[in-house]
Amino acid sequence: MFFTNKELEKYIPIANLIAKTFGKNCEVVIHDLSIPQNSVVYAVNNHVTGRQVGQPFDHLVKQVLLSKNFDGDYTANYKIVTEDNREIKSSTALIRNSKGEVIGALCINYDLDPMKNIKEFLDEFMHVEQEKIENVKPFDNVIQIVDDLIDKIVSNTNIDNLKRKDKVSLIKFMDEKGIFLIKGAIEKVADKLNISKVTVYSYLDDIKKNKNC
């Protein structure tokens, strides 16, 4: 390790700190841009991309300086791909001297490959079925179950003595429980309550309006 610019040596502890903090999958490289053809002057955890002291920079211009995200002397979280097809998340910051001149760059390369299994596990574990519930004709056994539910809901009431508010209350309960999502349920409820289908729809409209108030 040979630093032609001693100011860059000050960044070795920072490079080591970053690598130690984020572990073996995190590579940190220091570039001396006064020697572009041999800009790599320090690398820790260099098994990540195989960077070696004495090598030139690779992505500084195309993915850092020319990036639309380049701001404040750095570009963060751009992707590079290794020769063995591993995805690396990279970030690069320029290093300036006391005169404000760019003298080097600090590059962080994080190997995302070990994270893929974790991501796949989390994606599978967190997946839930978002099924859209519509008014459809269900299987016959479901129809029978819903018919029985309707019978039970109204069986303990004296239909002839039910007031409007009581009927609305029953219909509200059945609506909340999803009874009317079953095709044909409105007609069956209307028949059980001795009211018209239009009346059931009217009650449902009133229930909806009161809910939105």
UniProtKB/TrEMBL annotation:
Transmembrane segments: none annotated. Residues 8-120 form the YheO-like domain. Residues 146-205 form the Transcriptional regulator DauR-like HTH domain. Pfam families: HTH_22, PAS_6. InterPro entries: DauR-like, DauR-like_HTH, YheO. It comes from the Bacteria. PANTHER family: TRANSCRIPTIONAL REGULATOR DAUR. This is PAS domain-containing protein. It comes from Clostridium aestuarii.
